[in-house]
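Researcher: Next sequence.
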Amino acid sequence: MRRSAILTVLLTIAAGALVACGSSKKTTTTSAAAATTATARCTKAVLKTHNGGVMTVATDSPAFPPYFEDNKPANGKGFESAVAYAIAKQLGYAPSEVKWVVEHFNSSYAPGPKNFDFDVNEISITPDRAKAVDFSDPYFTAPQGIVVPKGSKLANATSLADFKDAKFGVQIGTTSLDAVKNQIKPTKSVKVFDTSNDVNTALKENLVDAVVVDLPTAFYITSAQVEGSKIAGQFNAPGGDQWGALLPKNSALTACVSEAVQKLKASGTLAKIQNQWMAGASAPKLQ
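Model: Next structure:
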């Protein structure tokens, strides 16, 4: 009886192990099939783009370095131009099958139909914007930069508190406005301008004490747009630093563009693109 009972227990354990092994194998097979199916959906042959057989990408005009070079998004030069082509390639589109259109920054995240598949324009992912449009996984995280005009006493600031009484300028619709209000909390009203060119003009003509833009743009302003200007420092703005490809609301392409971004991250391609076009974008950190 004792030997029989032991045998019964052993047989029961063995049967359970076989069932468990069978279940594990089935689960693994199912997961692999699901991944294959997801990848199969994200191919040129299956994707339904705005214009069949073409990936239509939007950005603003003019398009500035280091995101675009020579105001020609289609040349593949500049951080966001290179990112857009890398996403398209990951989805099976050759450079000749990428078409660029103009979409102004403020209208990109407005509700309504779009004439593009995705937009790359230093667009921060925010909950409010996500109510009207879709975003891919982020392809870049940018801190904010404070730029001051030539001869400013604020050029040697060591903390955000040093800017408490400064008059700031920002572009309308950007997360920089929220960054100034929430992180710096100046005592004076922030001046809001329609375009980035208006922001630069205000800086040149000393209409403001400082402007706030994303850090890479700050480097371009100081090196090529506003002579004598200086980056006083950088700071993080929670909730407004991550940039994603913007797509129409409930786009069938959103998951695939996100998958493409994920693969570009995993392969190191995104890091290489960033190093090539955004290297040197560093400044003192202000708190």
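Model: Strands lie at 55-59, 98-102, 118-119, 133-141, 144-148, 168-171, 191-193, 210-214, 230-235, 242-248. The longest helix spans residues 2-41.
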